[in-house]
Write a structure and sequence with these properties.
Pfam families: GGDEF
Structural class: alpha+beta
CATH architecture of the largest domain: 2-Layer Sandwich
InterPro entries: DGC-Regulatory_Protein, GGDEF_dom, Nucleotide_cyclase, Rev_trsase/Diguanyl_cyclase
Distance between the termini: 53 Å
Protein name: Diguanylate cyclase (GGDEF)-like protein
Domain GGDEF: 143-276
Strand order of the largest sheet: 2-1-5-4-3
Number of helices: 8
Number of domains: 2
Helix content: 25-40%
Organism: Desulfobotulus alkaliphilus
CATH superfamily of the largest domain: Reverse transcriptase/Diguanylate cyclase domain
Length: 286
């Protein structure tokens, strides 16, 4: 069968599927796994960046068992992807020396809404799952992750003056601009209301996030047509960095949120890096 056609059918399957080598490097991942992890480019990725460390040893044992016994192995793993349980089905392919893995969700688990209904962005819950994966990856690669918390300035007056329909247009346009500004390896979500959160991955140093934030500022500040009327909003940004500020995702989100409010006190269009041990001012503005 044509490899492209085969890949197409794999992408139509709702089950999460991937192909691994013996070193747990990802050779292929289908669309379902892309959606559940939020990772659009799996090149150079390793399963070590996707699943908890406590599961790595078990996975390697299962791969070796499948290879040695030349049979399909099934195993139920709790909290495997984004804290959700999966049944893992593994089969070794002798001709290529690779492993086929299928991850099956527990049908008894409630299905989480992956996308915000208005903007189409990831939800807060999905971001928290993907954020854990970003940190796992950064830990393995010895890189940094910046969490960027953004709140819109001027959104309420637009909503109050022109109505909720106009407010919805603003949120949709801002979402599209943010999405088009970040890289494929980054993660973006609507945190709630007019708040957004981003995960900027694979940074050599946390300060490098400032360049990306400047681009976001510029994109947000462009006028928006709400139907024959131009309106303008701006963003206040707070930034926290793994591992500089903390290694716990929830704590990093809180630090970024606090830094964002620090930026708001300075005026419109500011960004502040988090300073966890200080409360008077952020580390520095962008």
């Amino acid at each position: 069968m044509d490899p492209d056609l085969l890949a197409y059918f794999h992408d139509m399957i709702p089950l999460e599927m991937c192909i691994l080598d013996s070193g747990l490097n990802l050779i292929y991942a289908n669309e379902a796994l892309t959606k559940s992890t939020g990772i659009h480019d799996f090149s150079g990725r390793n399963m070590k960046s996707l699943i908890p460390e406590t599961r790595l040893g078990t996975l390697q044992v299962l791969l070796e068992k499948s290879r040695r016994e030349n049979r399909e192995i099934r195993y139920r793993a709790e909290g495997l992807i984004g804290g959700e349980d999966r049944e893992v089905i593994i089969k070794y392919h002798h001709e290529t020396g690779t492993f086929y893995a299928v991850l099956v969700r527990d049908s008894c688990q409630p299905i989480k809404e992956n996308k915000d209904a208005l903007t189409g962005l990831a939800t807060r819950e999905i971001f928290m799952e993907r954020g854990v994966q970003l940190i796992h990856h950064a830990k393995r690669q010895k890189t940094c992750v910046a969490l960027v918390f953004m709140d819109l300035n001027g959104f309420k007056p637009v909503n109050d003056t022109y109505g909720h329909k106009a407010g919805d247009i603003v949120l949709k346009v801002i979402s599209e601009r943010l999405q088009s500004t970040i890289r494929k390896t980054d993660t973006l979500a609507r945190f709630g209301g007019d708040e957004f959160i981003l995960g900027l991955s694979d940074l050599k140093a946390g300060i490098h996030a400032s360049l990306g934030v400047r681009r976001l500022m510029k994109a947000v500040a462009e006028p928006i047509d709400i139907g024959g009327q131009l309106v303008s909003v701006s963003g206040s940004f707070g930034i926290s960095v793994y591992p500089d500020d903390n290694s716990d995702l929830k704590t990093l989100v809180r630090y970024a949120d606090e830094a964002m409010y620090q930026a708001k006190t300075r005026g419109l269009g500011y960004a502040f890096f988090s300073t966890p041990h200080k409360t008077s001012s952020g580390k520095e503005s962008v």
